[in-house]
Write a structure and sequence with these properties.
Elements (H helix, E strand, L loop, with lengths): L2 H13 L28 H23 L15 H19 L11 H14 L9 H13 L23
Helix pairs in contact: 1-2, 1-3, 1-5, 3-4, 4-5
Length: 170
């Protein structure tokens, strides 16, 4: 995943927590479906660094969302020029929808607020959506609406990975 798609993916995991085994959210990041770790991060030190970087990014996103007032200012989407914004919004949405569909909950609506928020995100990131200047703000508002529906508003705890080592999964 590129950074914009990764942000969308991690945002979904924060805003719409899914019930998946610890660390099962990692393989989609490197483009896998199982625990086969890519060779470039297969060494234990490389794998630990990779996990530390991804979980650190996830924690930073969670901190930003948890600030009062909640913010989405650190989003990588804010740094995109107008020409790159459309592609960035679509990549972010691809990651976000991947995160929403992870696990058994999938896209089952919790309530009308959550359903409306997901529809707003989809409407502002679809290929047919006009690239309006307010798209990022609409997406941020929808993310905050989803976050208000979370069962827990506390900060993320330890983001542990599966006890299987990367070497054991090759």
């Amino acid at each position: 995943m590129e950074i914009v798609e990764l942000e969308g993916y991690l945002t979904a995991l924060i805003a719409w927590p899914v019930n998946v085994p610890t660390g099962a959210w990692l393989p989609p990041i490197w483009g896998g479906r199982g625990w086969r770790v890519p060779a470039k991060i297969a060494a234990p030190a490389q794998f630990e660094k990779f996990v530390a970087l991804v979980s650190g990014f996830m924690r930073e996103l969670d901190r930003e969302f948890g600030r009062q007032p909640s913010r989405f200012e650190t989003s990588v989407l804010h740094g995109l020029s107008n020409s790159a914004r459309v592609a960035g919004l679509r990549a972010w949405a691809k990651g976000f929808m991947s995160g929403l569909t992870l696990g058994s909950q999938g896209l089952k609506w919790r309530n009308e607020i959550a359903g409306a928020a997901v529809r707003i995100i989809a409407a502002n990131t679809s290929p047919s959506a006009p690239p309006g200047p307010q798209a990022i703000e609409k997406i941020a508002s929808a993310v905050f609406a989803l976050m208000s529906q979370r069962a827990s508003r506390g900060p993320l705890g330890a983001l542990e990975v599966s006890p299987a080592s990367p070497a054991a999964t090759r």
